[in-house]
Amino acid sequence: MSKSAAHRIVDHLAPLLALAPVTRRPGPDTVLIVDGTLVPTHDRSVSASSKNYRYSVNRQVVIDADTCLVVAVGWPVPGSYNDCTAFGDSGLDRACRGANVMADGGYQGNPGVIMPYQKPRDGAELPEWKQRRNTVHKRVRARIEYAFAHMKTWAILRNCRHKRSGVQHATRGIALMRNLTMTV
After folding, report:
1. pLDDT in tens, 104-125
2. Fewer CB within 10 Å of terminal CB in the chain, N or C?
3. Which residues pair with 63 in a beta bridge?
4. Which residue range(s) make up the domain with 176?
5. Is residue 122 part of a domain?
6. pTM value?
């Protein structure tokens, strides 16, 4: 399928396919995984030059750790924002309130986010129990990387030509289609 055909289809169907907002709050025993990815876009009103030297938006996505289904997609923020800032500015911090949220080391400063242990500043090695927990953390958190890889197989997320809220509709529509393919 060509980019222009995908653009026309998503432009027409995106508002209809967009993920429904989370209506129930996650419980205290729910584990969510959050991460961000850069989506190149042509709309310079919502994007900024980022570390890949392209105009991109930072897309924050939250998945359920048990089912690997996308729970929420944050609003696009400029690609120059780091993950810690984008998590709050995209609105996902409010959507994840009440649940255990796992993230990588880029989310320092966000209260309630479970991150891996870092090496001490004095250069000493981590204790064995911290290394084991980091290993488990990485295995669980890898699920969101698989989700991003699956979502980015759609050409529209590799080079989004939408303006204004079209980036949001495209990402939410692709997340919904991913959830549908995983449940069927």
Report:
1. 988 888 888 899 998 888 988 9
2. C
3. 33, 70
4. 3-117+128-183
5. no
6. 0.80
